[in-house]
């Protein structure tokens, strides 16, 4: 697996290390800041590509990995697909559903594989919680709470602070939770949201989003770019018990059951999340999907649906009204 990476900012740096750890060869890196590309290339013995086209015209490169600000995703994915390369793109897939759909279509037409880096599915604590839910350990899920965030992010050209580019934390960050929630609890029917981004121009954002699932379950999703540090967690309340996770705790996963099989209550199930970086697990998986036809844990269609939920939340925050999602799949 030979990879060309576009973007050498925060995620380009993470992906460079993860490809290397996963045993992929990073052939070349392109960034419009050549010094950033050079710094990452030096870590893994890669070349610095002078242009994006240079990556595309290298016949030895199998996969193009796009780690650019969100509004650039579509143009770069389309070019990579047209050049016959498999594509990995950071989340969120795109700022609009029209872009997201077009990207999926072009990859399909070009016959290349297309993956979107919804990494939360590779965090062991989130995967474990999902497995517990699917195994019925908490009974029928009723109310789910998730939280994520911390400090206001800074990126190249301060693009996160320009909400016309980043789409606020509702598109950029809690899309992780939307994707995990949909993966775990099924399709979302209705979305209602409040967001600070509609009320202030300061470098602060905070959102509360309520999702109603087709199953009848309700999720309360909290996101913040108004605190310090970074913290994330969730709580799943079902008819038989609770699953609770808080990244600030030492024991990352705690299952509290109202009626455990053995008649014991308050069973703690700690697991280490530190086997390997979830980003490496994710990238190793996508590599195996391409090389060995492994079934992808997350598809581009899943990424599309996550964008749909984010955009519905933004619309609800803007209008003050709940948004009902379209039922049809494509
Ligand atoms: N999966 C996650 O956990 C996670 C975390 C953070 C960000 N992201 C996503 O990853 C993507 C990148 O975010 P980031 O934080 O790495 O951004 P960043 O600002 O840190 O890096 C962006 C890089 O792109 C380069 N660049 C900008 N325009 C370019 C162009 N036209 N051609 C070539 N290079 C160009 C910049 O020089 C910069 O190095 C975003 O979509 C973001 O939402 C995902």
How would you explain this protein's 3D organization?
The protein has two domains: 2-117, NAD(P)-binding Rossmann-like Domain (Rossmann fold); 121-276 and 305-324, Dihydrodipicolinate Reductase, domain 2, CATH 3.30.360.10. The chain has eleven helices and 14 strands. The strands form two sheets. It has an eight-stranded mixed beta sheet with strand order 13-12-11-7-10-9-8-14. Strands 3-2-1-4-5-6 form a six-stranded parallel beta sheet, with helices on both faces. Mean pLDDT is 93; it is low at 260-272. α1 packs parallel to α2 and α4 (73-82) runs parallel beside α5. It is α/β, with parallel strands linked by helices and 330 residues long. It is globular and about 55 Å long. The chain binds nicotinamide-adenine-dinucleotide. Nicotinamide-adenine-dinucleotide binds at residues 6-12, 31-33, 36, 67-70, 72, 90-91, 117, 119, 155-156, 159, 172. Nicotinamide-adenine-dinucleotide is lined by residues 6-12, 31-33, 36, 67-70, 72, 90-91, 117, 119, 155-156, 159, 172.
Brief sketch in words of this structure:
This protein has helices spanning 10-21, 34-44, 52-56, 73-82, 97-110, 124-134, 163-166, 168-172, 175-185, 278-292, 300-319; strands at 2-6, 25-30, 47-48, 63-66, 86-90, 114-117, 141-150, 188-195, 206-213, 218-224, 230-238, 241-246, 254-257, 323-324.
